[in-house]
Amino acid sequence: MIKKSDNLTLTQSQRKRLISEAESSAQQAYAPYSRFRVGAAVLAASGKIYRGANIENASYGLSTCAERVALAATMVAGEARIIAIAVACVDAPPDAPLEHKLPCGACRQWLQELAPDAPIFVSGEERSFRLPDLLPHGFTLA
Fold it and tell me: How many CB atoms are located within 10 Å of the residue 53 CB?
């Protein structure tokens, strides 16, 4: 079972580093079809950061989002608590609407399962988000 993250407040420096890691991860994306590179970084309770980038496939349904890659890497490493997540859509124009920068529905459900209390930082946005902001009635099993 995944433990809920503590209600820790990240320092501005920690937040900037996490967003920087997400932006850097996006450079490793494989996005030949959409040309929309996304990176994600997950801060685990151990202090380690796990990164991910979107990986597309010609069979679009087999593509994987950056957030899910980073969350999977965190779980495979044996981390039990996720403290925070950052997402960077480096190909979104700076004036793109917020909806173009937020995690997709599938990623939101992964967050519901693996990091329900972790703040979500989005590159280029001042405010942070909580999962209920993005997925108000997330699916869970008792």
Answer: 24
